Amino acid sequence: MQSIENLIKDSQGKTSDNDETTQSKFAQKQKQIKLKEMERQTSAKADALGLPYMNLFRFPISPEALSLIPEEEAYALRSICFYYDGVNIRIGTIYPEKEEIIDKLEFLCKKHHCNGGIYVISPHSLKSAWKLYATLPKLIRIEGGVEIKEEELRKFEAEIKSYKDLESKINDVNISEIVTLILATAMKTNSSDIHIEAEHDGVVVRFRIDGVLQEAAIIKKEKWKKIISRMKLLAKVKINVDDKPQDGRYTVFLQDDKIDIRSSFLPTAFGESVVMRLLKSNSIGLSFDQLGLIPQSYEKLNHEIQKPNGLILTTGPTGSGKTTTLYAVLNKLNKPGTKIITLEDPIEYQLKGINQSQVNPKENYTFANGLRSILRQDPDIIMIGEIRDLDTAEIAVQASLTGHLVLSTLHTNDSSGVIPRLIDIGVKPYFLTPSINAVIGQRLVRKLCPHCNIKHDLDINEKEKVQKILAVISPKAEIQIPNQLPIIYKAGPGCEKCSGLAYKGRIGIYEIFTMSDNVKELTSNGAPAFKILKQLIEDGMITMLQDGVLKCLDGLTSLEEIYRVIGKFDYIDSLYDIMVSDTIGRGIKISEPDLILGEKFAKDINSVNQEFNQLPNNKMLAALIASAVKVSAGDIHIEPTGNKVKIRFRIDGILHDIVDMQKENYFPILSEIKILAGFPTNVKKASWDGRFAIFMSQAKMDCRLSIISGGYGETVVIRLLTNQAEALDMKELGMRPYILNPIQKSMKRTKGVIITSGPTGSGKTTTLYSILNRLNKPDVKIITVEDPIEYHLEGIMQTQIDPSKNYTFEVALKSLLRQNPNIMMIGEIRDAETAKIAIEASMTGHLVLSTIHANSAVGAIARLLGLGINKQILSSSVECSIGQRLVRKICTHCKEEVKIEQENIQIIDEYLQKINKDIIKNYHLEDIIRNKKTYKGAGCEKCGGLGYKGRVGIYEVVEMSPALKKIIQQEGITDFEIEEAAINDGAVTMMQDGILKVITGETTIEEILRVVD
User: Fold this and answer.
1) Is 500 contained in some domain?
2) Alpha helices in 50-92 (DSSP H)
């Protein structure tokens, strides 16, 4: 080969006739050398970046690969997709370090379920590849050889604002354009189906938008024969057959999507009618997280689909979203190490990485036969389109029992009908109890258009119906029911955003249950659907109706839409009436007259006795509970003595005698209480523990019940549980800035232990809930384990221990760690093992909140040391320790200043003098201490004559500072020395906090001395 120099010399020695040819060859040679050098440099750059190099000059790039990145976007990114085989996607670029290119590859890989790679290419390589865009077809292809011009489809879409616009256009376009126009309108309005129905005077076009048919236009009858011929041609059915039903299918390929269109042709009295179902491939992008499940249902279903075997069944009428739910589940479970096979009729959407098979009854390839064949393919997960007969049902059940996770649908009205339906088909009950993981009942409801919805003022009947639906939600459902109904919205007049429909989009309403022991027993006994539904509600299932009403309260849809989709539910009304008196929703209804009487008693609790004993027996319990609610009592104590029965209320932590009830009235009330809790009235045990609900016009309250046999009869304690955890505020609880700041500082940590201490009834758990309220955010996962669950918090996973089933704090805590929460709350550290696990959790990236029985904040640290926690580990894991008590607040309505007694002056001054000087200065306490005053409550109607109303906390916080860590790690250190070190470090003791609350008029010195040792 000649060198460049020789080539130049030769060219100079040539005659003039060859000058032009020689110069042309030289230029080409020089260009080739430059291109080779460019490719060499590009290859070197790729090596330096650790990326593969590729030369795309004359590389065969398929149209499928090229079309993954649109031409304009390829120019903007200086990139091109040069390879796509359904498994791998490869992008070539001259700027491989750009984040936009990396993001584009990740998006494409996720969308198409592929592996991806970025290759370094030269500018010459890129330009030569870009030229291939000119070869892409400019048409949208329809399988079957028919083409629709892209510009026409886009033009129609741009012109159409609403389905109503079709009327003015459809009879003005030619026959070949009508199908394009109808498809464009359906796509523009997100219709799921197109109905074209021949009638006497014309052919009606209707679109199913968000599940509801909307009439759009009427086609002139003389055009219909030619139009339907074109539709048959597209669907590949016989054009000359018009007296038999026919089914066909075709696919519209768009630039970024494709739409499968299933066509059904049916002869009618006035000619053939056509229904076209539009199946968009991007619809399968709906993820499991986007189904619209409430957190409690989401957690339940997510847990069940992770199991390696069992049955997951969805149920509901046609068009209720069953298949969409199953596809969402499959999308979540679809991983490289899992083999998934589906058997469908028909295959509605193509799923990447999943083997999909379609039944063909004409070839005897039924669900049952297909399922037998599938099992020989050794799948991990199987989806069966529908269980229609005994053969399919039995094979599905057997597959679920032999190591396969089986998903399928069943046609029943609701989830409770699934088990009776399977038994009716012929499946043996003893096969169902171990095989079923979860059953999902569902419907799709339209969402209100957020741009035109309007407020809906409920009338008395509507309000009563909603409250009735919500009232029987079981406490086991862990749903926070609002005391007062929020603003509810209804469909507005319609607007441009929703095409005048007042609704836009749809969301699912669900009911999900798993096989509890009680449901298994009902299944074994062949119980009807009504009894199963009753048990499911008791077990904590939220019904579709209830889920829908809850979505109404969130402003997502309307009551009218929920009632329309659910249909008749008179039987549910009957069920609710039974539930209120007979199941977990059982409880006592407190009427307005009861509350008025309770209000009267609450004004002077010391004068209730005489009037109460004159009440009829059947009014006494309601009056007692109404009085307790109105006076904000925490407990009702009913204690038989020798001659009478003493009734006492615990108000603000103090027991007050309310009534000396006659002995003859005791047994009717005791029987009524037992019936409310579901206990037999003719059985006596050493102790009973249960729950029941209190139903009031605007609220529902849960009660914990304890009955213990004593010498004079059975003693009853009813604890009233408020559900207002969201209202708990740290400042309102009594945490002043000098207490609040160190706690907030600890709350900002991502790991560590925050512990509260004090005796029973000192408000420790309430403090933890107030901390959780502040920490509860959408991006933080919080799990609690409690005994019992006292408050219900939205967005927090709450669990309850059950020692009878060996589900202790220790066992629960180990399980919680596998859920990988950010924050954990443990109801109580009771033993060394729980303490050890809590500390270990705090040191491995979790913030742990808990309580411990100790007298003070320092005592809590000593208690942990006593449980065997190493000093060094403890000092590095505990963020702060909170000691607390609850004291009664002076009634603000009858509060009056009193002179400070001499002995109290000495106590007050002694504790105030010990407060750290920096605390006094930093929190501006000088004037408060200098102008100290004391107060008391004189007693009035507002406080029932007690002088106190409500309670406030007094606190101390020991923050684990570097100085305190050194003190704790010393040998032989005493609690007193730790406390002194904490005070020197800026801590305020409970007594000091209490004294400060005394001299600011919040409580009395007597209260402080009563609760603090």
Assistant:
1) no
2) 63-66, 71-77
